[in-house]
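Work Package 4 report. The design task specified in the project plan requires that, given a folded chain encoded as structure tokens, an amino acid be chosen for each position. We show below one input record used in the internal validation round.
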């Protein structure tokens, strides 16, 4: 089977990012963004989606991590869209419910070709260590918009910010793994329209 891969480069006055990904990989990650907690979350995203992700980012971290996190989301989203191609034979939909100790994340994805993002999450305070928790939603919003997918994230309960974020990244990964997988019973485009994104 030919692997579905993509390479993306993005450079602005704020960030420089190089990405390669393989939807049919084994969850191997090489992550360097300069933001430790974010590196950890992206490693989880790769491992549990079984998508190989190699991303190296240099950003204006002297300002804060916002531009780096958002732009990495943009680039990963672009990579997903490129690697998916015409989306023939994919499951299209994916969903997961993942616990992380006392926290629970619920995620649903539709690789529809239309961007939509819903984030129903209440963190317990503004940070995990030095990482601003608002950047979790910024990352996934950028990813959903760039990949042109529907992404719904809900955390009905949770107390520890690290656990909440980790549950979200793992749940998105598991839902994404299902959505991008090939469906042996449906080799066409999984839409009654005959095309996605229209």
């Amino acid at each position: 089977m030919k692997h579905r891969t993509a390479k993306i480069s993005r450079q602005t006055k704020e960030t420089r990012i190089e990405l390669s990904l393989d939807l049919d990989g084994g969850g191997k990650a090489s992550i360097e963004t300069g933001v430790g907690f974010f590196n950890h979350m992206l490693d989880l995203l790769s491992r549990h989606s079984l998508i190989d992700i190699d991303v190296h980012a240099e950003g204006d971290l002297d300002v804060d991590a916002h531009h780096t996190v958002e732009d990495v989301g943009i680039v990963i989203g672009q990579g997903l869209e490129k690697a998916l191609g015409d989306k023939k034979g994919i499951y299209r939909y994916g969903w997961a419910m993942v616990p992380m100790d006392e926290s629970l994340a619920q995620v649903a994805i539709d690789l529809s070709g239309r961007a939509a993002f819903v984030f129903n999450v209440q963190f317990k305070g503004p940070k995990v260590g030095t990482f601003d928790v608002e950047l979790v939603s910024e990352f996934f919003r950028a990813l959903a918009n760039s990949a042109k997918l529907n992404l719904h994230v809900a955390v009905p309960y949770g107390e520890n910010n690290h656990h909440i974020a980790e549950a979200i990244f793992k749940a998105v990964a598991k839902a994404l793994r299902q959505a991008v997988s090939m469906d042996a019973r449906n080799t066409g485009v999984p839409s009654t329209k005959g095309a996605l994104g229209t």
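The radius of gyration is 16 Å. Validation will be extended to a larger panel in the next phase.
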